[in-house]
Design a protein that fits this description.
This is Nuclear pore protein. By secondary structure, this protein is mainly alpha-helical. 63% of the residues lie in helices and 0% in strands. Helix 2 crosses helix 4 (71-84).
Length: 132
């Protein structure tokens, strides 16, 4: 009997999307404000880790440009920014969130009007636009 060779897990855009969705879903159902803030911060941190090629959880294997081209992933990040805003009191952190949101608004994937946005996604985008 021979064991299967050890395989390294390589995260995909789909697995990244699933991770971000899991954080967001958990944040929406928790009653604990600190836990909610922590979960939305994880979404933002994961986004930043992919951009920086962070080795945590194999995130360096995800193509940052692919992430920025994936409309659903970007909308999950924007949702986390909008949901996190009222939970943050530090003005420096708020400015970081605003800057991140404004930079995400410039992405081509959000300018693609070929498929309509959900009402909640449009609401999140409008909120970020109001930060300008």
């Amino acid at each position: 009997y021979v064991d299967e060779p050890e395989r390294k897990w390589i995260p995909s855009m789909s697995s990244l999307r699933s991770l971000l969705m899991a954080y967001s879903r958990e944040a929406t159902v928790t009653e604990d404000g600190d836990r909610r803030r922590e979960l939305y911060e994880r979404v933002i941190q994961t986004y930043e880790d992919v951009l920086m090629g962070e080795r945590r959880m194999g995130l360096q294997r995800i193509d940052p440009m692919g992430m920025l081209d994936d409309r659903r992933v970007v909308l999950l990040i924007i949702h986390a920014l909008v949901a996190l805003r009222p939970l943050v009191s530090d003005t420096n952190r708020l400015e970081e969130l605003h800057n991140t949101g404004r930079s995400l608004l410039q992405l081509d994937c959000l300018r693609d009007n070929s498929s309509p946005l959900s009402w909640s996604a449009q609401k999140d985008l409008d909120a970020v636009r109001s930060w300008s």
